[in-house]
Amino acid sequence: MLGKLIKYDFKAISIPLLILHSALLLFTIFSRFFVFNHIDYSENNPLSLFTFLFVLLFYIGNIAISLGTYVIIALRFYKHLFTEKGYLARTLPVSSLSHLLSKTIVGIVWGFVNTILITFCTAFVIFTPSFFKATNLIGGMNVFFQVFGFHNSFQVAFFLIATVILTLLSVICSIALIYLAIALGSLFSNHKILASIAFYFVLNFAYSMISSIVMLPLFVKSTSTFESIRNLPHLLFSTYGILSIVIIILSTLSYFVIHYLMDKKIDL
Amino acid sequence: MNKILECIELTKKYANNFCAINQLNLTLYSGQIVGLLGPNGSGKTTLIKMINDCLIPTGGIIYVNGNPVGIHSKEDISYLPDVLSLDEHLKVEELVTYFNDFYKNFNPVKAHQMILDLGINPSSRLRTLSKGTKEKVQLILTMSRDAKLFILDEPIGGVDPASRDYILHTILSNYNPDATVLISTHLIGEIENIIDRVLFLQNGQIILNSTVDEVREQHHKSVDQLFREVFRC
């Protein structure tokens, strides 16, 4: 049954999300070849007003597409389970856990696709031949890694893989936060959407505060001496490790609460 | 006859202390068409939603065919809500596939035939159809299941008389005689001739639970007349 739920959840949101991300790709290609390729990154050539505004538009467009992605994911969760459409969904012979898992899996997949695509598009427009020529990026990065303690390419590769894993965990946590906000907002008899938005900002703030408080001792210890700053791999891996644990704990707790609310508390 | 529905001390109280269902006890047996009647606000939809796991009871318990409300009870119940609950971006034929995917006792051939009989193009998206036609599609999907308990919440409210006749005909000709049909409505005159048993619900409690024949013999009135007398404003 879970497979069938996932099939229909993907079907419900994939077309609008494919359209959004196709538009992002087309806009990226247009931007690269008609604007960013013509930017001269050498010192004495400031950006023209048009170029500056276009870069701003590109940045805002990326944010809008990312926001749109998560809004579509959130709307599917809300409409399918907590509005009139819930009369069909909640009377299917499947558990509330299956519903939650299905929407979580679909949300995570599209959230991850969105993150990867935006990262790729941003890199694609920035890293033009002119940029590489002006900044000597690759040479600079080699020096950076050597100065800050990366001794071999294995460590660099591990750092990149760890970054991808942390990104995935962040997407999982973002989805959990959205769904928890919606579940809490649905406890109200009126103004559910407004309540959900309010809960989103409160939870977002709370999650950020918890992460910051947990990370603070490590940050203080790791930046207390010049030598400790130079051992960037150790700092990064410690940071990533602790942040991952915090995200896993917060996400797990969130999903437990969401499931409890769906099963025991939320009325249609 | 076996027990198909059992509600024991069922209660639903809301946050403002309003008690929509108040320690209700009810047992229904298989093979009956039961009319759940009551004025607006009497608790009919609240009771139906609790049976279908759309509302969480404050107290009491519900058994459907011996199972508490959950996955197994939902396999045995075919529910027609009083609102349109289908995904309107799907095509009619995709909705048939959807029901066939999730319900083991769904008969897609029967559903397709009824859809074609109504002249509905199965390739149409639900959102392109009229309100009445959407409701008929929802009814067809509900009645195409070989369920043990059919629960129809206001199936004939808000439609024209010809559509009412079609809906009642569809209900009667498509349900298994061993199954139970629970119809909630306030249009008693329309369903009096098809129901076997009648339940009057007032202020969240059942004040009458009799067969239609018993009502006529004991009160010397039709169910419609008795309803008007009991629930006189």
From TrEMBL, chain A:
The keyword Thylakoid does not apply. Keywords: Membrane, Transmembrane, Transmembrane helix. The keyword Transcription does not apply. The chain crosses the membrane at residues 12-35, 47-75, 105-127, 156-185, 197-220, 240-262. It comes from the Bacteria. This is ABC transporter permease. It comes from Aequitasia blattaphilus.
TrEMBL record, chain B:
Coiled coil: none annotated. It holds the Pfam family ABC_tran. Keywords: ATP-binding, Nucleotide-binding, Transport. It comes from the Bacteria. Residues 5-228 form the ABC transporter domain. InterPro entries: AAA+_ATPase, ABC_transporter-like_ATP-bd, ABC_Transporter_VariousFunc, P-loop_NTPase. This is ABC transporter ATP-binding protein. It comes from Aequitasia blattaphilus.
